Amino acid sequence: MEEKVDRKIQEMLEQEIIEPVTGPPEWISPMVVVPKGKDDIRLCINMRYPNQAIQREHYPLPMIDTLLNKLKGAKYFSKLDITSAFYHIELHHQSRGITTFMTSRGLMRFRRLMFGINCAPEIFQRSPIGIEMKQLKMKMRLKSRKANYTLTGKDVQNRLPSQSATKL
């Protein structure tokens, strides 16, 4: 397991998702390793205490009841999993310290928005990526609930996106 964690940390360093911490940290959160499929893992950071210090900017997210009502008449469904989409949003340098976590290689912190920050869905929804997803949603009857999107339609042709619409 330790080798998988080390590989995942190296991968995230190379992709500039995380960076080593230099200097004394403001926060240190524990890391939890969760199996993902047969051979992969997910590094989860317990942000319970740092989340209490984050001032949330509320941004309206769709209500599940509203989304369920819009599914009436749909017979076909497709799911777009954009869980890693948060990594496309860079954190301001001053905001990175709150994401610090301990690894066997020392302290690391996120350079990118991470899953576990309580305001991540709102930040994503108002980002250019989130706005693009909203425009796509209008065109394709796309229903959103956090990091998963569902395409619906009364037949397969109305459900499938055009080739240009699938490029996110």
Automatic annotation (TrEMBL):
Gene3D superfamilies in UniProt: HIV Type 1 Reverse Transcriptase, subunit A, domain 1 (3.10.10.10)
Annotated signal peptide: none
Pfam families recorded: RVT_1 (PF00078)
UniProt record, GO biological process: DNA biosynthetic process
Entries under CDD domains matching the protein: RT_LTR
Residue span(s) of domain Reverse transcriptase: 15-168
The protein's name in its UniProt record: Reverse transcriptase domain-containing protein
Organism, scientific name: Anopheles dirus
